[in-house]
Amino acid sequence: MQSHEVDYKIIGHDMQMVEIELDPAETVIAEAGAMNYMEQGIAFETRMGDGAEPDQGMMGKLFSAGKRMLTGESLFMTHFTNEGEGKQRVAFAAPYPGSVIPVNLAEIGGQLVCQKDSFLAAARGTRVGIALNKRIGSGFFGGEGFILQKLEGDGMVFVHAGGTVVRKELKNETLRLDTGCLVAFSQGIDYDIALSGGLKSMMFGGEGLVMATLSGSGTVWIQSLPFSRLADRILAHAPKAGGSSQGEN
């Protein structure tokens, strides 16, 4: 199915949202709970699957939805359709601070692999599945990077990254990074997980036990502040249950 052609505008700087403009009968799909606002002519419906294959039977929909469950996402996605007569707009944002990355799949070979919680929205016709790395190292040590989402099609997709986003173009090169800092990568990139170093480095280096290794030619998007890292810092400084509050005698 050819993806719907949608226009968009990125709003904000440090805490961005994406506003998508839909022509009559155009549809955008999104993760449940990602919508911020929508204009009067927009109707929404929660459906099983991404709607990329309209003739797909119930078993096919269950199989596709089941694969999404492996990433920890919902079985269902929300479809927003312009049922009005003119252009209408709907906006989306992720639940934590960061940037929205627009990617035209037609310009990168029709496929984008991204972290399981980074997908935000996409033009209808985009297939949302999973990418399992078959290598043993990725399976046992991958952590955040083991099960990745795979977005396929020829339209616009929007993914979310925490903090500052760095886009790197690899030309038959290798890049090593923290698994949580990886947002997405295009076709032509080979992904693997490896131990970060010697025993001393793993225990006292503070960089984690494993690192992601990306090799080949293509585009890689990196985030400076993974949500897991932010959550760990918040929990470390949160008041402990049963502890006395400041100022008590």
How does this model look, in words?
It is globular and about 55 Å long. The N and C termini lie far apart (68 Å). The protein has four helices and 17 strands. With 249 residues, the protein is mainly beta. It has one domain: 4-Layer Sandwich (Double-stranded beta-helix), CATH 3.60.160. Helix content is 14%, strand content 45%. Strands 9, 11, 12, 14, 15, 16 and 17 form a seven-stranded antiparallel β-sheet that branches. A six-stranded antiparallel β-sheet has the order 5-6-3-10-13-8. A hairpin with a 5-residue loop joins strand 1 (7-11) and strand 2.
> What's the SSE pattern?
EEEEEHEEEEEEHEEEEEHEH
- The end-to-end span amounts to 68 Å
Q: Under CATH, the topology is which?
A: Double-stranded beta-helix
Shape: globular
CATH class: Alpha Beta
Number of helices, where a helix is a run of at least 4 consecutive DSSP H or I residues: 4
Largest sheet: 7 strands, antiparallel
Secondary structure class reads mainly beta
Number of strands: 17
CATH superfamily: Mitochondrial biogenesis AIM24
Uncertain regions spanning at least 5 consecutive residues? 136-145, 244-249
